[in-house]
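Each letter names a residue; structure tokens follow underneath. Both lines appear below:
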Amino acid sequence: MHRVTDRWRLGLALALCTTVLWSILPLALKVLLRSIDSFTITWVRLGLSGAVLAAVLAPGGLLSAKAGGLRPGRRAAGLIAIAAAGLCANYILYIMGLDRLTAGAAQVLIQLGPVFMMFGGVLIFRERIAPAQAAGAAVFVAGLLLFFNHRIEGILTSFTGYTAGMLLIIAAAITWAAYSMAQKQLLVSYSSASIMLVVYAVGAVAFLPLSKPADLLDLDALGAGLLLFCALNTLAAYGCFSEALNHWEASRVAAVLATVPVVTLFWQWAFSSLWPDLVDSEPVGFAGVAGAFMVVGGSLLVALWRGRRPAAPEPAAGGGSR
């Protein structure tokens, strides 16, 4: 069993760094979408991340199996296929939904991922839902209704671009849950970095025919900088996240990361005040802010509650395009 170093200050700093990176990512993507299409952005993110990760893993072996773990075969290949398809679909569905929503709204809605993962565990693995998890799901739904209270009438009466964006983010949360459940089984046999390398490679190949590499030449300095930031953000955030788990308990790291939607709302308010032409604001009042905190709290209960039984390792709380 892995033991943390108890250097909690370093663990907290690394978790906060991850939170900042993940909270600011959708804002950067939102601005970048004005210059380049979602398929090209996703292809560059996956391709560059895969290339960097391959260079890092090359000295120790790109895809090494753990002793006594799942042997290469049909089951392993099937799980890897589900993980790759799930996360690649999550990336593209999320950014397509983000193109139609504000960054804050997308980050709040993508927190449906842990809720869908909980129900997936019930349907596929016959897991039981603890009362605290059921309460967390109820709090989560109530929080969503509060956050989108000013949009509900429009959503129910007409099908707009905003509604389409919400449906795309919900689909992204479902595919993230599928990826997470497949990854949970694969982590018994392979390292997370090896799994991600395969996912990145599959995604880079799959999105190449749909992307427009020639458009990259037309990017200005701001666009090129944002694209590079978005491509490296996942690797940097993942590195900080993994190292945080070495120094601090997973539940506490996940509790910090669950605040990502609220932090995104703060960044969105700050940046939209400074650069209103670049960053759209989300018109949320007191009820909307309260709803965002309820979403965070409900997501934490759903993802972290384990009752009295020892928990198997699984992805941290929070879903989305990471």
Notes: The radius of gyration is 19 Å. The chain is about 70% helix and 0% strand. The longest helix spans residues 221-247. The chain has a mean pLDDT of 83.
